[in-house]
Amino acid sequence: MLARRFKSDDSAVSPVVGVILMVAITVLLAATAATFFLDFGSGSLGQNAPQAAFTFDYESGSPDSLTIEHRSGDSIQAGNLYITVSGASTANGQHDFTSLSGAPAAGSKITAGSRVTFSKASDLSDAAVTLNWKSPDSGKSIQLASWEAP
């Protein structure tokens, strides 16, 4: 007799379903508000950063030279690239990519197979070089590739 009463009594199902639905709606509203107010939907650079692979070929000499080659990926405006050098004997700091040997003009694009040579330092044996892209819209930059002396 007691078993029949429990089979037909389903009054506890309604509050459990109600609580689950209220929690789901709260989570959905919180996620929507966070996306809107914190601007998760758009990129932090104002536009998508290029995806590209670069290689570095170091040759010691007088002066040392470092050849940077765009191996594959998106084409990139030359004026939006710059390199940062640290640990070199005479060329520490930020250098405009278009001023490097073999670099195209600022308005042209760097595509797969393009090469430039950095030879502004007399000694790169302890240097670290990073290739960076600067967003033309927001001015923010990201590192695309890096090289450290062997």
From TrEMBL:
Domain Archaeal Type IV pilin N-terminal: 11-89
Organism the protein comes from: Haloarcula marismortui (strain ATCC 43049 / DSM 3752 / JCM 8966 / VKM B-1809) (Halobacterium marismortui)
Protein name in UniProt: Type IV pilin
Domain of life: Archaea
Signal peptide from the UniProt entry: none
InterPro entries per the UniProt record, alphabetical: Flagellin/pilin_N_arc (IPR013373), Pilin_N_archaeal (IPR012859)
Pfam families according to UniProt: Pilin_N
Residues spanning the membrane: 12-38
Keyword terms of this UniProt record: Membrane, Transmembrane, Transmembrane helix
